[in-house]
Amino acid sequence: MMKHTKLMKERIRRVRVLFKELGYNFKESEIHENSYSAGFEYKEEFIGGIYIDKDSKFMEIAFSFSFSSHLGSFIQNKLEDMLRTCYEFGCYLNLFNAEEEIAFSVFSKIYYVGLNFYSLKETIKDFQLCVDSIKDIIKFEDDE
Fold it and tell me: Residues near 109 by Cβ (< 8 Å), separated by ≥ 6?
C-alpha cells in the first residue's frame, strides 16, 4: 500500500514540475489516496484539467463542454465533425446524455514512460488545437 502512495506522490510531483516548466499553473486540485485531479491554466486562461489514477499507466488531460438537452439535434449534427477533429489531433471524445444536459469531454492521454517536457508540450499543443477546433465546430451561427 505504501508503494502506491509513493508512486502517486512521484507522479503528481513530476506532472506538476513539467506543467510549471511549460508555464502552466494549477487551480482547484483534489488529491485522494487513489487519484489526483486539477484544473490548469496558462496566463490566467483556463485550459483544462488533468487526472491521475494510481492504477493507470497514463495521465489524462481533459476539457468538458455542457449543453442543454434541447440542443441534442444540434450536437448530433456536429458529432461526425467533432469525432474527425479528435482523430486528427490524437484525442478522444466522451459523450454523456442525461435528461436535462448533454455533456462531452475531449481528452488526451500521455503515458508516464514517455512523459517529458517535449512530449507534454506537444500533447498539450495538439489538445488545445483540438478543443479550439471543436469550439469552432459547435459555435452557433446567426441562422441556426
Answer: 58, 59, 60, 61, 92
Per-residue pLDDT tens digits for 75-112: 999 999 999 999 999 999 999 888 889 999 999 999 99
- CA pair distance 55, 58, nearest whole angstrom: 9
Domains, the chain, ranges and CATH?
2-137 (3.30.1460.10)
For residue 91, give the nearest of 102, 78, 101, 104 by alpha carbon: 104
- What would the DSSP string read from start to end of 59-127? EEEEEEEEEEGGGHHHHHHHHHHHHHHHHHTT-EEEEEE-SSEEEEEEEEEEEGGG-SHHHHHHHHHHH
% of the chain at pLDDT higher than 90: 68
